[in-house]
Amino acid sequence: MNQLVEALIHRLRYAAVTPHLRPARRWADLGCHRTYPFLRKNRDLAKEAWGLDIGLTDKTDGTLRLVRGDIMKPLPFADGSLDLITSLAVIEHVDDPKIVLREARRCLTGDGRLIVTTPSRSGIRLHEWLVRTGLVKDVEADEHRDFRMSAELLAGWAREAGLVVEECRTFELGLNVILVARRAA
Known about the structure:
Layout: H1 2-17, E1 24-30, H2 37-41, E2 46-53, E3 59-61, E4 64-68, E5 82-88, H3 97-107, E6 108-119, H4 121-133, H5 151-160, E7 163-171, E8 176-183
Parallel strand pairs: 1-2, 1-5, 2-4, 5-6
Antiparallel strand pairs: 3-4, 6-8, 7-8
């Protein structure tokens, strides 16, 4: 049962993100998970693609480069080198999402795009309940940080990081937030 619920959650998240994807030369998925499902699903999106996650072992999977790395530290990419950065359901697990947003801005090309999803405050509460009841097992209980997440808060953090917000809104009945931003000129 828990795999069905987790698959549904991922499918709904990917459906919100997919319309914002565009082909890229270089793409990094921050916090891609040890099984990197979003990267695998979209592996043809970019000529070069990296997955970065603390739970990975450095390896190559076809055209994908998987790197063990902590997204709270400087990212292993040159300034202005990435056309696309995604980070799906990740920033609610870090102590300071602003660090991740600043690093993403540094690594984006002039017209590069950042796409972030995160549960809203009510989404975190629902997810914690699903974990406690055993309906999902994708995280440990109380693993999420409660930033009282909202579209307004995430958009504000993005602007502070020097990003231009193209879109920031809730989806899935307000349970999640999606941010689409680009590097400010």
